[in-house]
Design brief:
Blueprint (H helix, E strand, L loop, with lengths): L1 H18 L18 E5 L8 H10 L4 E4 L3 E2 L8 E2 L5 H14 L2 E5 L8 H14 L3 E4 L5 H11 L2 E5 L15 H8 L6 E6 H6 L4 H7 L4 E6 L1 E2 L8 E2 L8 H10 L5 E4 L9 H17 L3
Parallel strand pairs: 1-2, 1-12, 2-5, 5-6, 6-7, 7-8, 8-9, 9-12
Antiparallel strand pairs: 3-4, 10-11
Length: about 290
């Protein structure tokens, strides 16, 4: 009986650990929270524009946080300068000034390759530290040992991102939440998933199901709603498609998620501001209705 009781107690402890949300000492300041979430844009939404314009547009549509990606042009005045973790101190200072001007908080960076060699990986983490980021987004599972070492050193989180299933490349497995879980489950709890809900839909996976598989390991989210469950589905304003955005928000809330939700909109990219604003507004309104 004693052994049975011990096993039951151990099982309960392990189940509780599974749902404890991943946390780091670096937290996003609460002033940037919108209706229960740190809500803003993945700068790739504005990939036809520059970093400076992406910051301005994020603020204009109601976003308070931004997730950068590598390779975006810096500004209309300096279109030949690329923004990434190799940026000069001068370039970083210019971006920080633009962020301050529009009261937008940088929180994440990716999707970016992280090399296995420590010196190369450290450049990415140093860039994140300089910007005060909470997390980095990658798909570099081959660098997991290096990533875990630097996560512990820098106290910066890492989320593994999912692109859609690739029919011509069966070796690509990031679309599968079970695979992502197998990569991160025995690692530091600051390593987990960047939940791209639209790409799960394109892979035939219901996002809420994927979030439940990865419970307690959701670092951040690229929030997309799609017009249909298919590889060819395109983005639509949040709450109007098939992704079950209310269910996604409810599940994130249930898990105690405290990362960033980045609206990543890849449709009508030359003039997507009304749809991005509608997406921001849906999440904000839903959270307010639920009194989050």
């Amino acid at each position: 009986m004693k052994m049975t009781s011990y096993r039951l107690a151990l099982g309960l402890v392990l189940s509780l650990i599974a749902v404890i949300p991943a946390r780091a000492e670096i937290q996003i300041p609460s002033e940037y929270k919108t209706s229960g979430f740190f809500l803003g844009c993945q700068a790739y939404t504005w990939n036809r524009f520059t970093v400076f314009e992406a910051i301005e547009k994020t603020a204009a549509v109601g976003g308070k946080v931004i997730e950068f990606y590598p390779g975006q042009r810096l500004s209309p005045e300096e279109p030949n300068v690329e923004w990434d973790h190799n940026a000069s101190a001068e370039t970083i200072a210019k971006v920080k000034a633009q962020l301050a001007k529009y009261h937008v908080q940088p929180v994440n960076y990716g999707v970016v390759g992280i090399p296995r060699d420590e010196a190369g990986a450290r450049k990415v983490f140093e860039f994140a530290k300089t910007l005060g980021l909470r997390a980095i987004t990658t798909e570099s599972t081959d660098a997991i040992d290096t990533i875990e070492k630097l996560v512990k050193e820098y106290d910066i989180m890492v989320g593994f991102h999912d692109h859609p299933r690739q029919q011509r490349n069966p070796s690509y497995r990031m679309w599968d939440p079970h695979y992502v879980l197998s990569v991160v489950k025995d690692r530091d709890r600051r390593i987990g998933s960047c939940a791209d809900t639209g790409h799960w839909v394109r892979s035939g996976i219901k996002p809420v199901d994927a979030l439940r598989i990865l419970r307690g390991r959701i670092i951040s989210s690229h929030l997309k709603d799609l017009n249909e469950f298919s590889a060819g589905g395109h983005d639509v304003p949040a709450g109007t498609g098939v992704s079950d955005v209310p269910g996604i928000l409810e599940e994130l809330r249930r898990q105690g998620f405290n990362g960033n939700i980045s609206i990543e909109y890849e449709y009508h990219e030359e003039n997507s501001m009304p749809e991005v604003a509608q997406s921001i507004g849906f999440v904000r309104g839903y959270g307010r209705a639920r009194q989050w």
